[in-house]
Specification:
- The chain is of the alpha+beta class.
- It has helices at residues 3-16, 31-47, 62-68, 135-140, 188-199; strands spanning 52-58, 74-79, 83-84, 89-91, 99-108, 114-124, 145-150, 163-168, 171-177, 208-213, 218-219, 225-230, 234-241.
- The chain is built from five helices and 13 strands.
- The strands form two sheets. Strands 1, 2, 3, 5, 6, 7, 10 and 11 form an eight-stranded mixed beta sheet that branches. Strands 4-13-12-8-9 form a five-stranded mixed beta sheet, with no helix packed on it.
- Helix 1 (3-16) crosses helix 2 (31-47).
- The chain is globular and about 50 Å long.
- The relative contact order is 0.22.
- Pfam families: FAA_hydrolase.
- Residues 101-237 form the Fumarylacetoacetase-like C-terminal domain.
Amino acid sequence: MTIEERAALLDQATATGQAIPQLTSSEPMSLATAYAVQHAGIALRERRGEKLAGVKLGFTSKAKAEQMGVSDVIIGSLTDRMRIEDGGTFDVGRGVHPRIEPEVAFRLGPDGELVAVAPALEIIDSRYRDFRFSLADVVADNTSASAFVVGPWSKIDQVDALSVELLFDGEIVASGSTADILGDPLRALPAAQRMAAAYGHRLLGGSVLLAGAATAAVVLKAGAHVEARVAGLGSVSVRTKEG
């Protein structure tokens, strides 16, 4: 298949919520080709009127990287239509098998510097069957990006050892530390700069950088109130529905 054909398959899976076989199940795919597929998929979105809103990093947890057998982070793109307002609603029925993670978000300044920090939630949703994929598969699938929610922005201070809690309907379902994000979430900027330079992503002034997950992802179901609390930064939430 061509790069465009692979991107179209993933785009259709995203639109319909119907899982597809892993792209690498039929033919090998290099990391460079996988990023080309990712960019082709974002180009499809942009032609429909979506605008770039930022980038996200994946495999920033040492444990997750070791689980996947990788030694470096991966990068994906965020668009404006992926963003949900704090306290807003996400329709789980539009996804394949959506999951949610608590994160730290940064806002980029005009020169690509970090100017503000906020608690965040990222909804991930692999478009592959059984939520199984290789490194190339997940990169092509825009690092499983589905939606994101950003809480109140605040001035950047020490963010390297803050406790993080993920709550469903007021009950803690996962907990961790911002230290689980590259050892210090501030390391997300040089990591993003390096990956963007290598694979052609754009770090735009005013855009969002999702630094990575502080806990394992938790399966999303309809009718839940999901909240992330990051010590010193505050909280961010989203509600789920179906249909």
